[in-house]
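Z., the sequence and structure:
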Amino acid sequence: MSGQQQASRPTDDSRAFPHWHDPGKEALEIVEGDGAYVTTADGRTHLDFIAQLYCVNAGHGNEAIIEAIEEQLRQVQYVSSAKHNDARSELAGRLADVAPDGLTDVLFSISGSEANESAAQFAREYTGNNKILTRWRSYHGATYGAGSFTGDPQTRAPIERHAATTGSGKFLPPLPRAFGTDDPQELADQAIEHLRFVIHNEGPDSIAAILTEPVGGTSGAYPAPADYFTQLRELCDEYGILLISDEVIAGFGRCGDWFGIGTEDVQPDMITFAKGVTSAYIPLAGVIARRDIAAHFEEEGFPLGQTFSGHPVACAAGLAAVEEYEDGLIDNVADHADHFESRLRELEAKHDVVCDVHGRGYLWGVEFADPATGEPFVDPRVTDEDNPVDDVLSATRERGVLCGSARPNTQVIVSPPLTVGEAEIDEGVAALDEAIAEVF
């Protein structure tokens, strides 16, 4: 299990089959939420230090978002995705306002997986090329198309056992382990030269886009070394390849800016979004594209769609969430990010089993390794041995704090609502500290 608390049926009579189902794990049954906290059916309160699935950015029980949903329900409940609607049009405009410069037009979808598939369709039709390059150890979704983009074998392999898809290729992420260097500039340079090698061997004229997260999400909250994205942008321009930033997790304040790519000062050709756009109150996702890309489809037509794309109630929630982010939540991340990082780095200094702490804003990974070998205690990609990282997650939960696991499950992910301040950060890190000491 990766990227979430492991799931199982909450009660014997429940007929709701959970995603990421593991029959050996017991799931919480959450019945209430308020701010950064959730309450389970047994009456216990937990600090939601993972924002459920990195998505309840505005916290639980935000009245502004709830009221916007209620108001839209009284006005009009559904409008075909083939038609215009005032909430839909207004949200598209607001998203264009906060997106990186040059991104002006929005195609809505329902989930992050579908947003990434839509962006790939845009790129393929616009360029006339077929291949989408993504990183190994990435996560871009679990539908058939998005699953082919995902580098994580725990997602991709179960899909490809039955139906592999074409038109995707992989390259190594800019991680020290992949290139044998901890020097940021050397790492960036080597990773870009490796990608150039991949482009040459795939054939530059076959590649439509590079799809990548600006900061790793479920793959471990790892940022790129300085200068990597600048070089990546130059490489894409050199070969006429579109750059798509997957902002499903990194977007809407999670990394301390509207979008994670904004922390790199690089202009992508498209971004994909989901999760935080409504603070996960209602499913909504989409693509924000350059004007010339959108103009191509305005002229040529776009024959695809989804019934619930750009649902007006979801768009109303999105408008309210954007106002909440603008009205202090993103600033709150910027104000407290240094404190968050310093508290997490204390774990690295205190526990020799914590080999690395990495992240940005309110998205961090705490990685574990055997200090004697420098290798993970258990690599779930190659073995099904009992994993002490699972024990850390359980021990943290027993202390009333919910964290997440990564892909691969060699680290703990912390990604709280953007509402938390120093007190909640200290509470969450203290629970994690105690859990590490207990397990190791």
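The chain has 13 helices and 15 strands. The radius of gyration is 21 Å.

Let me know what you think.
H.
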